[in-house]
Every structure is written in structure tokens, then in C-alpha cells.
Design goal:
Length: about 260
């Protein structure tokens, strides 16, 4: 909060007489209760506040930010591998990059209104720092570092899963809707070719038509699926083909 705020509200860092009360709403949002609230306080201390306050007994959050970056890389990687067991290394890397990018972190931070608990200098406060993407993203990294220091890797992983749940659903939804694009990218990389989709059967009345589509790559069938539209059937067939490629060894994929 702004260091000129003397309201004594629960989120006011200039009135930390009851640290547990101060951070209780934040702890409720992230699903973790700190054993040592001082480490949480450090995670929420921006260098601008420290420069103005001149409090030599406090540290800013930059070291915890450094640690939190590494913690997030680990726990988000594990989360993605468990959530998407059939995805390739490249796909997992792109998904992780999206989640832990500055924009992804800021989105997760804004969802829990993390800016409310950041100690900011007066200048940064007036400049809108409490909602600035870089500041809240860095604060979230620092918070993850603080959770790791206070409780270890398991609580950090649980908090990350809670924070990124909605974004993971978006990643999954996007992947499901874009199987054809993903397959085309893979086929180009492996064999410099593109998939071929062919409607091999249609059935049902006009108002409830079903299309069966066969997908081939280099003359070999890699997927066959039905759907209420050609596009739906093609997406499902592409998903089958991606699963087949993921299950193949690198040598088989390169040679086969």
C-alpha cells in the first residue's frame, strides 16, 4: 500500500502491528499460510519502498524473485507434464513459456489482486505501479520463492496449480481446437509434407449428419474419426495422428 496511507486496514504495510491479519486475505487467495510472515513481507517489498523508507532491517524482494523464477520453472514443468502426458517436449516448452512469461504471471497476479499487498514507494504508487505488469509479475515470482523458503516444494507446487488452473484450461482448449495446425507443424518438421484429409463416409439425415474422415501422411493412414462436421472430424483425426507420433520413438518418427 501507499506509505502515506494511515488507515490501518488489513492490507496496509505501514501498519504491520498484526502481520497475520495483514496477510490473511492473501494467504486465503493462494491457499497457503506462512509460518514466518516476515518472508512474505520481504516478497512484497519493492525496491522503491525500501529506497524511500531507508529501513536497513528490511530487504527488497529481488533475491526471492530470483529464486521464485527457478521454483516456477520446476513446478509448472511438472504440472504440465502431469496435465498433458501425451504432449511433446516442444509443446510443453511453449506452454510453460506462455504461463511463466511476464504477461502470464501478471494475469495470475491480477486474479488474486496481488498488487494490494506490495510495498511501493510514493513515486511508483503515483505512477500506477500497483497494477504495472512487470511489478506484479516480479512480485508473484518473489511470492513463490517465499513459499518455497517457508514451506518447501510441495506447497509451492500446490499454490502454482491453484494460480494457473484457469490458464491451464485455456492451454488445453487451445490445443484441442488447433490439432490440425499442430499436426501440420509436426509433419513439416519431420518430413516436409502436409496431412491429407478425406471424407470416406457420411451417414444420417441432413439435420444430424455424421462425417467420417481419414487422415494420411505420405500415403499412410494416421487417423480416422467421425464428427458432426467435416472440421470436427478432421480435428479428431489430427488428435489421433498427434498421439501416434508422440508414442513413436524419435528414430521411428525420423525413419518411418
Amino acid at each position: 500500500m501507499d506509505s502515506t496511507d494511515d488507515s490501518g486496514s488489513a492490507g496496509d504495510p505501514d501498519n504491520p502491528d498484526n502481520p497475520r491479519s495483514t496477510y490473511a486475505p492473501l494467504e486465503a487467495r493462494i491457499g497457503y499460510t506462512f509460518r514466518d510472515t516476515a518472508v512474505c513481507e520481504t516478497a512484497m517489498t519493492h525496491t522503491s519502498w525500501l529506497n524511500e523508507a531507508g529501513d536497513t532491517s528490511r530487504s527488497d524482494n529481488e533475491r526471492l524473485e530470483f529464486l521464485g523464477d527457478a521454483v516456477l520453472a520446476l513446478v509448472v514443468s511438472d504440472l504440465l507434464m502431469r496435465r498433458f502426458p501425451s504432449r511433446s517436449e516442444g509443446e510443453l516448452t511453449r506452454a510453460r513459456a506462455a504461463l511463466v512469461s511476464e504477461g502470464g504471471l501478471a494475469r495470475a497476479a491480477h486474479a488474486i489482486e496481488l498488487g494490494k499487498w506490495i510495498f511501493l514507494g510514493k513515486g511508483e504508487e503515483r505512477a500506477g505501479g500497483r497494477t504495472r505488469q512487470s511489478i506484479v509479475a516480479n512480485a508473484l515470482e518473489a511470492l513463490m520463492g517465499a513459499i518455497y523458503v517457508d514451506g518447501g516444494i510441495a506447497p509451492a507446487a500446490a499454490v502454482a496449480e491453484r494460480l494457473f488452473a484457469g490458464m491451464l484450461e485455456d492451454v488445453e482448449r487451445h490445443a484441442q481446437l488447433d490439432n490440425k495446425s499442430r499436426l501440420q507443424e509436426r509433419a513439416q518438421a519431420l518430413w516436409q509434407t502436409t496431412p491429407t484429409y478425406e471424407v470416406v463416409a457420411q451417414e444420417g439425415p441432413d439435420h444430424d449428419r455424421r462425417f467420417e474422415v481419414a487422415l494420411t501422411l505420405r500415403g499412410r493412414e494416421y487417423g480416422r474419426a467421425t464428427g458432426r462436421s467435416k472440421k470436427e472430424a478432421e480435428q479428431s483425426a489430427a488428435a489421433q495422428a498427434l498421439a501416434t507420433l508422440d508414442a513413436s520413438s524419435p528414430r521411428k518418427r525420423d525413419d518411418g
